[in-house]
Amino acid sequence: MFPMSRILRAALTGLAILSAPQAFAQSLELPQIDVDGRPAGSGAGGGSLTQPGVDRQREQVNSTAGAVSFIDAQTYRNTYASNLRDVLQESPGVFVQNRYSQEIRLSIRGSGIARAFHTRGVEILQDGIPTNLADGSGDFYQIDPMGLRAIEVFRGGNALPFGASTLGGAVNFVTPTAYTAAAPNIFRIDGGSFGTIRAHGEVSRVIGNWDFHVGGTVTHSDGWRAHEQQNLGHFNANAGYRFSDRVETRFYAGAYYTDVKLPGTLTYNQAMTNPRMANAGAVSGDQARNTYVQRFANVTSFKLDSGQLDITSFVVHKHLNHPIFQVLDQDGWTYGISPRFNGSFNLGGFRNDVVIGARIFNGTNDALQYQNLGNATRGVLTTNARQTSRNYEAWFENRFFVLPTFAITAGAKLFQSERSFNGGTNLNNANIAFINQTITYGGVNPRVGVLWEPVKNIQVFANVTRSADLPDFSDLVQSNSLGISTFQSSLKAQTATTFEIGTRGRSGRFGWEAVVYSSDVRNQLLQFGVNPAASIPAATFNAPHTRLQGVEFAGSVDLFNNLASADDKLTLRQVWTYSDFRMVNDPTYGNNRLPVVPTHVLRTALTYTHPQFSVTPTVDIVPEGAFVDYRNTFKVGGYWLLGLQASVNLPNNATLFVDARNLLDRRYISDISPVVNNNTTAAGYYPGTGRSIYGGVRYQF
């Protein structure tokens, strides 16, 4: 364990000793790689100290010595992008599946695969600022796909520059500023299947040294399944002020509300024969998820002779009203501060680049639970607790160039994290189980690697990273057969050593990204067994030894240019994720495959782009479904889905688009709640959405 004072001293010492003429992010000219072959939209240049332009963001991401992806939001602007699957589905290695409405499964390299709700093992950020709670848990409702300018995906240990060192890495969703917005004014309205309608607008201006950007989206949908109605609202704003060409500050504000009915899971037979029905318990309990989130943050940047110092501070308030098996009523605050320095200097005649940062990231959550008497009516109070998380982190990453085109990288993250639970369980209005416990985790996660550019626009990289995933309160606080909360202080942190080798680049008509990785995982946090001594049903436990390995590939080829007119193009894109996730000599499950994630997931798209219109047929293929249970007795079926997107440019900077999905109306299982032993009569399946068609018009000026 590393006390806070030691961590902070290390961070501040590193900040103090650096002196150089160049920033780390500006030190290496590496290729701009457009794997999907589509050009960036307007607003790609420009930028400012607090947020660089899109082209610069892409260069920064692609200078990473490891597996990363960069997505310009302009590439999906002519689709009905309603949740994170719609914007991440062409990022290799990212397994993202719809459950219902905004609820998805997000797993990178097997992170959080046992979690049947929300996410674990991936740090979700907006503008570099965490949206996860301080205990590491997170959901996706705050992110508005229409309110983004770019998405940065750092798989595994490649997220270290953000201070993330989990198995899955980090995804950073970047909102526009007045300097990076696609246009000063943008308005669009979408609609389509299942009573869906959505409106979005953005306005941005630069006024002297001030700039501002304001955007918002409101969405209503009745949902494909019964009891799936949703009403969503997203508001994002930022305002920046340039004190000089060396100092800039930017304030962020956001407000988000979610009012979503939950259809629940179905049995396998129900999901395949009557997939639009809702779970009977979800209907009788009027199960829903209602969240109200407010976010405030500041980033202040100083351009120094030695590089750039960014100081980020943030506070997030979240209220949750969540009637499910009981009514969850939670109110919490998450807050933190994080300095980060990027610099470059000459070391013995060789260039050396470094990033060093620190973060204090804390939060409190008042967690109440009531009996759900039906129709979300509250009964007696069953749980009254306060959850407190404290995180103290420091990290660095260094690149030493032994040759102008060959760098050796090394880095590490030091961390100490505390999880405190104070509260009790009330049955018949009598407090019979009071808990006041704290558990502390700490350690060091090192990382080493190499980055080589043999020829311009082509990179080869390899690295070894250690990661750590900590239990969150959903893991630590469990209920026994009497409904009494217990604190699982015996849960260990999940650790992994990941080996990775890959290449990315562009040569002529071809663009690619290909990565092979293998993670040796100890104490993986899974829902795989029972603890009879504590009378706890299948929940979260540490699997002694697992191995997660696979291949991540994305490629594109421009098949033809100038087919029917000047500047038209036909581009083929292919994404393939291969996942081989297994137990290793487990005393109960041997070398069985882990459930949930299919072995192969593929997406193929063929795009014809004309100056006035574009057409893209797509095929999503899962050749063989995933196992449902840890005993590997049952797999769901594979499937393939046909889609079509098309857009046409109208006069006066307007665009009309159509987005059609699952055109053949295939029935399939989209996601699974894993179990120990398969029971097809139990409800644990999420049916995939049937045929749907959306359309809209966008106007920007």
Automatic annotation (TrEMBL):
Residues 239-663 form the TonB-dependent receptor-like beta-barrel domain. This is TonB-dependent receptor. GO terms for biological process: siderophore transmembrane transport. Keywords: Cell outer membrane, Membrane, Receptor, Signal, TonB box, Transmembrane, Transmembrane beta strand, Transport. Residues 62-170 form the TonB-dependent receptor plug domain. SUPFAM superfamilies: Porins. Coiled coil: none annotated. It comes from Phreatobacter aquaticus. One of its GO terms (molecular function) is siderophore uptake transmembrane transporter activity. Residues 35-55 are annotated as: Disordered. InterPro entries: Beta-barrel_TonB, Beta-barrel_TonB_sf, Plug_dom, Plug_dom_sf, TonB-dep_rcpt-like. Belongs to the TonB-dependent receptor family. Pfam families: Plug (PF07715), TonB_dep_Rec_b-barrel (PF00593). CDD domains: ligand_gated_channel. The keyword Transmembrane applies.
